[in-house]
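General statements about sequence and structure are easier to judge against a single worked case. When preparing material for the folding task, we compiled for one chain both its residues and its backbone structure tokens. The amino acid sequence and the backbone structure tokens for this protein are reproduced below:
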Amino acid sequence: MVAIRGNHFVLQNTFRFCSITNKIFLLHNVSESFFYLLMALRHQKFIYLLKVSEMKKVVLILLSLTGFVIANAQITFGPKAGVNSSTIFGKNVEGYKSKTGFHIGGQAMIPVKGAFALQPELYFSTQGAKWTGYEGKGGQSNLSYINLPVLAKYNSKYGFFAETGPQIGMLLSAVDDYVYIEDDDFKDKAKKLDFAWAVGIGYLSKYGIGINARYNIGLNKFWDEEKNSVFQVGLYYDISRHLGAAKK
């Protein structure tokens, strides 16, 4: 019995050591990835900054993250989707009104300590604004991004939570949709990366269904003096909770 207990103690501590090592490896790679993204934002040459070797590194990081999510039962993940109300603001920028869009993607929650967690996400988002032009003939600016926020999250024992953190978006399309004239595709002239700060609150039920409201304020200009401003309301489904229950 003593030998069995001893072996159990060794195995238990070995698993703990592996879990801690995986977390350190993950945090190191995530921080390194954000360094390259921030450098890209500064120089606005993302495609040139990520050379072949760095692209391979990003792929390895994503694979490591996927394996870590699957191996660590404490991490939760699932799909999310919702509605956007976006507009455009900036110094001496006038005439823009909010337009409705949507977002869809996924998120994961990595426990850090106690009620605190790290929440990375990856989602598609339609943004932009409506405007009125000459003689009342207006249109709207249609922007679409792939957004990657990494949020610090506080979870209360009652299911309510608060979240905040940086977000980096990669521009997929940018089109001015006029009412009476041909549309103008200005993607090649717009900034390819969008940096924002997100603040939100929400509630996650015991059934794994959550709702949240979030505001993303643009920190850099995507065109002249224009910046993005997006308010989001969405739903989240904690699919990992049900996958874990099915395995049991």
Q: What stands out?
A: The CA atoms of residues 57 and 63 lie 10 Å apart. The first strand starts at residue 76 and ends at 89.
